[in-house]
Amino acid sequence: MNEMNWVDLTTFKIVAEELSFTRAARRLLVSVSAVSQRVRRLERCLGQRLLARTTTHVKLTEAGALALRSIASIETQWTQTRAQISGLEEPLPALPRPLCTALYRLTPSDLPDRMATIAAPGASEVRHYRSVALGLDQLRRGEVDFLWWRTWHRPHTGIGEDLRELRSHEVVTENAWAYLDCGHPLAGNPALNLARLAGFALVAPPEESAVAVPRQLREVSGHEQEFVHYPESQELAHELLRTSTAVSLGGPSEPLPAGLHRLPLASAARIRYMLSWRDHPAVERLAPAVLDLYRRWYVERTVECNPHHHRRMLSDPESYPGLPVTDYYPSDPRPMAHAALG
Predict the structure, then answer these.
(1) pLDDT tens track for 246-260
(2) Radius of gyration of the CA atoms of the chain, in A
């Protein structure tokens, strides 16, 4: 093999452990076809069949067993090398308190368990904020270390948030979806646009972006979009949708409340999902792992909450750089520098 491709080697290792392409795909959060392509690519490079496959069984060939032992040896050597390297470096300053992750408009219930894979169990805590500005301010003050948040994308006015003294990454920017009652007159459409919503009252999000959303829609459509309802909580917003013909806008990967329906919305407001962290050596060291955790959580949430949208992501992975949608995982999300945002 001219060049070692660790992605292909790791994929083969997981297939060999599971003896199933389907189970391996679930572990890797990619499609079964992507797993098959990686294994075939590795087999072509080695010039040997590594797995004997039938319609019901997968088993290792002699060459596959040898490759699996070699991969295990490489992993052991790398673990030892990392330990040796870390012993050569001066230790980074430790956090004076447990690692603290904050959330705004995101509620992964298993976040503490996920963070425990990065920090020691019991050495992390989670907070929730109802204001992006408050979360970012607490981040700058050093009271929290990471903030997972979302905002409404404003194409002509920048991100609209103060990101000074922080590191931030745009994880993904998605088209908004329309949320409405299952019995709504528009519920039978495959998709909607802003023009189809013109005759229906819009529900403003119960958050600080209630001002940003009308401005964003005005930029996209060229005319004022009328918001009639300004509920104080998400629960009240959902009740308005169930008892009227009003429509609200939200992200594609949110849990769908009982009794409601959602449709993709073309040429509309877009929602940007972000991760920001404070300037501290220990936090900076953990940032790549937290960012990867966030990206994988987002894809898992989409698979669970909106399989229809996940199928769209699989059909167009190039639109999701940095997300493990398929084997198209070529780059990090776009870093957001404050000076470039205007």
Answers:
(1) 998 888 888 899 999
(2) 23
